């Protein structure tokens, strides 16, 4: 039987690096709308909760079918509020809507994540009978070519350790991209954790779909990529 999937889209009003970024127009649409548009095309997601302390975000979300608006309390809208607490608050609210099987956390700062990315991640979850799936992307630059620079000796030791290995010959590394988090609802409620080591699997996304908006430069880059799609 097809699982019931709940998408949760968290969007705080405050943003120090890029003020009001969630409602800033990106290629003609508010940033957050790109996530709602992807959800709309998903074959799996049956309902969505937009959780925010921003009235404009909630108003935008009200134009999408099967999307519920959850006004976030002040204690969950501060700089110190954790994503887990926001998620649990939304899941608790969802219990009055339906009993969902899978929670799908979709941050609006990943506007190039597509409906196909979402559905492929959910398909992986179902095929593996997973408890959770987390999206990742290949590191653009190998961490083997990185070092801290707290002291002069850090740099000297780093230079000594370098070999003549070409960057393309180095082992591939992958990083979390923040685009898709899937977790079994029962597991989330029982563990009160977003990440567990049992029955969790990575879902690999392309660098293009993994663009994460944090700064003005990120925003400009995403707009350029969207125009070329």
Distinctive features:
229 residues; alpha/beta; two-stranded antiparallel ribbon
How do the helices and strands line up, and which of them pair or pack?
Blueprint: E1 5-11, E2 25-26, E3 29-30, H1 31-40, E4 45-52, H2 55-61, E5 67-71, H3 83-94, E6 102-105, H4 115-128, E7 132-138, H5 152-161, E8 174-184, H6 185-191, E9 200-204, H7 216-228
Parallel strand pairs: 1-4, 1-6, 4-5, 7-9
Antiparallel strand pairs: 2-3, 6-8, 7-8
What's this, in brief?
The chain is of the alpha/beta class. The chain has seven helices and nine strands, in the order E-E-E-H-E-H-E-H-E-H-E-H-E-H-E-H. Helix 2 (55-61) links the parallel strand 4 (45-52) and strand 5 (67-71).
What's the arrangement of strands in the largest beta sheet? 5-4-1-6-8-7-9
Count of extended strands: 9
Shape category: globular
Structural class label: alpha/beta
| Mean pLDDT over all positions | 93
Low-pLDDT segments: none
Number of continuous helical runs: 7
Helix content, binned percent: 25-40%
Tell me the β content. 15-25%
Characterization of this structure:
- This protein has 229 residues and is of the alpha/beta class.
- It has helices at residues 31-40, 55-61, 83-94, 115-128, 152-161, 185-191, 216-228; strands spanning 5-11, 25-26, 29-30, 45-52, 67-71, 102-105, 132-138, 174-184, 200-204.
- A seven-stranded mixed sheet has the order 5-4-1-6-8-7-9, with helices on both faces.
- Helix 2 (55-61) links the parallel strand 4 and strand 5.
- It is globular and about 60 Å long.
- 35% of the residues are buried.
- The model has no long low-confidence stretch (mean pLDDT 93).
């Amino acid at each position: 039987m097809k699982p019931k999937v709940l998408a949760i889209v968290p969007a705080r009003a405050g943003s120090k690096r890029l003020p009001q970024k969630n409602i800033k127009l990106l290629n003609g649409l508010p940033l957050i709308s790109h996530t709602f548009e992807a959800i709309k095309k998903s074959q799996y997601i049956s309902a969505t909760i937009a959780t925010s302390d921003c009235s404009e975000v909630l108003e935008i979300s009200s134009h999408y079918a099967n999307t519920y608006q959850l006004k976030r309390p002040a204690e969950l809208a501060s700089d110190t509020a954790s994503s887990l607490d926001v998620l649990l608050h939304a899941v608790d609210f969802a219990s009055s809507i339906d009993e969902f099987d899978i929670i799908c956390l979709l941050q609006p700062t990943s506007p190039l994540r597509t409906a196909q990315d979402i559905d492929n991640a959910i398909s992986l979850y179902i095929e593996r009978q997973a408890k959770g799936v987390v999206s990742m992307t290949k590191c653009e630059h190998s961490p083997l070519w990185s070092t801290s620079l707290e002291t002069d000796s850090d740099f000297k030791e780093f230079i000594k350790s370098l070999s003549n290995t070409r960057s393309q010959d180095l082992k591939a590394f992958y990083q979390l991209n923040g685009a898709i988090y899937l977790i079994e609802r029962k597991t989330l409620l029982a563990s009160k954790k977003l990440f567990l080591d049992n029955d969790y699997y990575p879902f690999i996304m392309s660098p293009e779909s993994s663009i994460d908006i944090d700064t003005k430069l990120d925003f400009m880059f995403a707009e350029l990529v969207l125009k070329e799609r």
